[in-house]
Sequence to fold (209 residues):
Amino acid sequence: MHPNPVFRKTPVADAIQFAKTRGFGILSVNGLEGPLLSHIPFVFDDENHAVDLHLVRSNPIARLLSEKPVPAVIAVSGPDSYVSPDWYQTDDQVPTWNYVAVHLRGDLERLASDKLRSVLDKTSEHFENQLHPKTPWSADKMSDDTLHKMMRAIVPFRLRLRTVDGTWKLNQNKSRAARESAANHIESAQIGMQPEKLADLMRENNEST
Fold:
């Protein structure tokens, strides 16, 4: 997370909502020979203040968590873009990268195998519901044999959350005019991920004038 507090004023509830909607991130834990990373979909369990996910049984993280929980973090990325100093139309500026990101930090534990179907159903339901008016897909459409074969290859996990940190780096430390100018150029340059969305967020966040 960026240390400048001006980029970290978004309420935790908004950071959680962003992560819920995105539902995809990079899971990281410390392995015996260095960090282990896995790109994963996930779904929130509000009742337990946790995030549920699944991993292929052969995943190194899955093998690492055969016994006790381990500290872990899920990094969730949003829109981002390079920002050229020229775009501010003011002197003595430097290049930077604007972005939105949330870190979900806690203890990752392996769940009992009988929890797997619930995790899978919640995950598919979360994303299928975003495809309205499409009729949601469910595992009930699969044959029992295919479903059971698939489930034998994956393992359910839960990240019990300790902290949620968010960064909305949107040039809040610049003047309103500089921020608006940069947002316009970001929108037209099309560098990074979802630059149009990032530009909209920059225009909405008017921390300075």
User: Anything to note?
Assistant: The CA atoms of residues 79 and 194 lie 5 Å apart.
